[in-house]
Amino acid sequence: MVKRLDSTEKAKALIQELKTQHGELMFYQAGGCCEGTQPQCFQKGGFYVRMNDILLGTIADCEFWVDKDLFEYWKFSHFTLDVLDGFGVGGFSLETPLGKTFKIHYRLFTEEELNNLEPITTAK
């Protein structure tokens, strides 16, 4: 099965640092106004997913949820979580005080990958 989500080693290292400070984590990526489409990192349970939001996968045992409308737009794309130096849009994410921001790189799945994608989970 082809995963819909992956991450860079740099992102995994920051996640481990944030886990040390904050405990279990989760990610949420919306298509809204304030946060743009930046992935946001929260303490697990610190953000309530909405009905029909999509669990895209996990990174370092952290759930990565996506807004249902954003998923419809990007459902044919692979997500790679990365991290950059700088202040991201919104500033609510746990990495912000460290002068970092999570970012997603997208690429389209090949036809072969599309035929073998991991199933998604929908919030209820």
Description:
With 124 residues, the chain is of the alpha/beta class. It has one domain: Hypothetical Protein Aq_1857, Chain: A, CATH 2.60.300.12. Helices cover 20% and strands 35% of the residues. It has three helices and eight strands; from the N terminus they run E-H-E-E-E-E-H-E-E-H-E. Strand 4 and strand 5 form a beta hairpin. The longest helix is centred in the first third of the chain and has 14 residues. The radius of gyration is 14 Å and the shape is globular. The mean pLDDT is 92.
Q: Please count the beta strands (DSSP E, at least 2 residues each).
A: 8
Taken as a percent bin, the fraction of beta residues is: 35-45%
CATH architecture: Sandwich
- Average pLDDT, to the nearest integer? 92
Q: Looking at CATH, which topology would you report?
A: Hypothetical Protein Aq_1857, Chain: A
Task: Note poorly predicted spans.
Answer: none
In angstroms, what separates the terminal alpha carbons? 24 Å
Largest sheet strand order: 3-2-5-4-8
Whole-number tally of structural domains: 1
Shape designation: globular
What profile does the largest beta sheet have? 5 strands, mixed
Helix content: 10-25%
CATH class: Mainly Beta
The name of the CATH superfamily reads HesB-like domain
Number of helices: 3
What is the string of helix and strand elements?
EHEEEEHEEHE
Secondary structure class reads: alpha/beta
Radius of gyration: 14 Å
Pfam families: DUF779 (PF05610)
Protein name: DUF779 domain-containing protein
InterPro entries: DUF779
